[in-house]
Amino acid sequence: ETGVTQSPTHLIKTRGQQVTLRCSSQSGHNTVSWYQQALGQGPQFIFQYYREEENGRGNFPPRFSGLQFPNYSSELNVNALELDDSALYLCASSSGTGTVLTEAFFGQGTRLTVV
Amino acid sequence: GQSLEQPSEVTAVEGAIVQINCTYQTSGFYGLSWYQQHDGGAPTFLSYNGLDGLEETGRFSSFLSRSDSYGYLLLQELQMKDSASYFCAVRITGGFKTIFGAGTRLFVKA
Predict the structure, then answer these.
(1) What is the pLDDT of residue A28?
(2) Do residue B50 and residue A33 have CB atoms under 8 angstroms apart?
(3) pLDDT attached to residue A100
(4) 3-state SS string over chain B?
(5) Among candidates A6, A9, A8, A15, which has minimal Cα distance to A86?
(6) Element (H, E) at A12
(7) Cα distance between residue A87 and residue A83, in whole Å
(8) Residue of A42, A101, A107 with shortest CB distance to B33
(9) Which of A15, A47, B17, B102 could bridge across to A57 with cysteines, CB 3.0–4.6 Å?
(10) Mean pLDDT, 10 residues at a time, over chain B (110 residues)?
(11) Residue B89: its chain A contacts at CB < 8 A?
């Protein structure tokens, strides 16, 4: 077990709704990254937060947003949900500034289904 | 664009050695990592190469050649529990992005 916890584990939402996913990072880690993983695919990088600031973003539209809190936990918010947003959402925590690829610890993920 | 190529599937027998290759085309490069993911589980970190050469961690080794934009993961003394998906991932410069490959599904047979 990595010490990274995500909630909820499963979620069903209707198209057009908004969702908030939560992640508690491993103790001592100041960097949190979020990924979207479709079935049978590799994780796709959404964004990264370092010390409460977003410092890296993948090719996701602005309706994907996030926050990192002073205790380094994090939220992923998705507005105006679309059917294609159905996926496993993974949170990973690591330490450092982000330039050095330190070992990243992943949570078990949140399985989001949009109907 | 950014891309990582790795084989989609590899099959090997218990006790054998298997190599999973990864070639990458990215704008900038900090290092190459490898992750293992069992069905229904989270990716777990296996190894990291920031410089050329071989890194060994128990039964797993990883190699990087920056000049060839190529790396591989070597799994020795395969066990049934090694059946999983394996992902290579590159941290690129310019925005602290991490790009994952599509994954290689490893099947270990008795």
Answers:
(1) 80
(2) no
(3) 53
(4) CCEEECCCEEEEECCCCEEEEEEEECCCCCEEEEEEECCCCCCEEEEEECCCEEEEECCEEEEEECCCCEEEEEECCCCHHHCEEEEEEEEECCCCEEEECCCEEEEEEC
(5) A15
(6) strand A10-13
(7) 10
(8) A101
(9) A47
(10) 92 97 90 93 91 94 96 97 96 78 96
(11) 42, 101
Going by the DSSP 8-state scheme, the letter that residue A86 receives in this structure is -
CB-side exposure of B81: number of CA atoms within 13 Å?
1
CA distance A45 to A55: 12
Of B43, B97, B103, the CB nearest to A106: B43
Tokens of A11: 């979620």
Tens-place pLDDT, residues A31-41: 899 999 999 89
> Going by C-beta distance under 8 Å and a sequence separation of 6 or more, which residues neighbour residue A26?
A2, A3, A4, A93, A105
**Residue A17 CB neighbour total at 10 angstroms:** 11
Q: How far is CA B29 from CA A115, B50, B69, in A?
A: 39, 9, 9
Among A90, A99, A104, select the one facing B96 at the smallest CB separation. Answer: A99
